[in-house]
Design brief:
There is one protein chain. This protein has helices spanning about 45-50, 70-75, 75-85, 90-100, 160-165, 180-185, 190-195, 205-215, 235-245; strands spanning about 1-5, 15-20, 25-30, 35-40, 60-65, 85-90, 110, 115-120, 120-130, 135-140, 145-150, 170-175, 220-225, 255, 265. The chain is α/β, with parallel strands linked by helices. The chain has a single domain (about 1-265), classed as 4-Layer Sandwich (Metallo-beta-lactamase, Chain A). Helix 8 packs parallel to helix 9. The structure holds zinc ion (2 copies). One zinc ion binds near residues 67, 69, 131 and 152.
């Protein structure tokens, strides 16, 4: 898999614009245009990051929303309305967004987990994950290449393991270190929510799941949605190194997504 900054002559790839509890957005590059996966920054910040990675906003054909939390939806309506592109989300997400003023885009399309769709020449498959609000993760497939993207999940269910198998590129949440979470000044109820089955994926559970998530064709891993207060990129890197060694998968490269800046584009074709 090549990593380049220009989208020219490539047909399928992924650029994470930023990931963490203060905002999430990713561009999925397809043969017939680009998709925006979540829009959890301000519209201004989102446009700046698109410019930084040389993605023309007019190349975006649709927005896919994983769940209603504001770190995934804050610019959804503005970007969707301004660019005149549809936003895809679940009916439950629509209900939650409808409770706030100005959060529902004019052009919305409701999707169901388990019902795939074809967008921009990409086979897009949403599937349910366990979180404290109805949430979905996605796989994106073009010909023989597959990207899996799963953040905001309390645990890696058998469904998630099945859906995320066979990915060339896997983006997986490593939200918190259990020790740092326990030692943090957060209220006990919040700590329990984060560490619960409907919360976020901690480092140990993510590392454990790699045994089943990595396929022979997996070449790249991205750890995402790290808590700034309760995690540390250096610690995740250390855990990943040792886990990949243990699994004899040193052929897999990994990166850690940042809240503050985009990662380089992963090109699969
Ligand atoms: Zn989130
Ligand atoms: Zn969330």
């Amino acid at each position: 898999m090549k990593q380049q900054t220009s989208a020219q002559s490539h047909a399928f790839g992924c650029t994470i614009l930023g990931s963490g509890s203060k905002g999430n957005a990713t561009v999925i590059h397809g043969p017939e245009g680009n998709l925006l996966l979540d829009a959890g920054f301000s519209a201004k910040e989102l446009m700046c990051r698109l410019e930084r990675v040389h993605v023309d906003p007019c190349s975006l054909r649709a927005i896919l929303i994983t769940h209603d939390h504001s770190d995934h939806t804050s610019a959804c309506r503005i970007v969707s309305d301004r660019l005149g592109i549809p936003a895809y989300f679940m009916p439950e997400t629509f209900c939650e967004l409808s409770k706030c003023t100005n959060k529902v885009p004019t052009h919305k399309i409701l999707i169901t987990p388990g019902s795939p769709l074809d967008l921009c020449g990409i086979h897009v498959e949403p599937f349910s994950i366990s979180h404290d609000t109805p949430a979905i993760a996605f796989t994106f497939t073009v010909r023989a290449h597959k990207i899996g993207f799963a953040t905001d999940l309390g645990f890696v269910s058998n469904l998630a393991k099945a859906k995320l198998s066979g990915c060339d590129l896997l983006v997986l949440e490593t939200n918190y270190d259990p020790g740092k979470l326990r030692a943090s000044a957060r209220p006990l109820t919040l700590k329990r929510r984060i560490a619960g089955k409907q919360g976020h994926l901690g480092n140990p559970d993510a590392m454990e799941a790699l045994a089943e998530l990595l396929s022979p064709n997996t070449r790249n891993l991205v750890f995402a949605h790290l808590s700034q207060e309760c995690n540390d990129p250096a610690l995740v890197a250390e855990l990943a190194e040792s886990r990949l060694t243990e699994l004899q998968r040193q052929d897999v490269s990994f990166r850690i997504a940042s809240q503050f800046e985009p990662l380089e584009t992963f090109w699969l074709e």
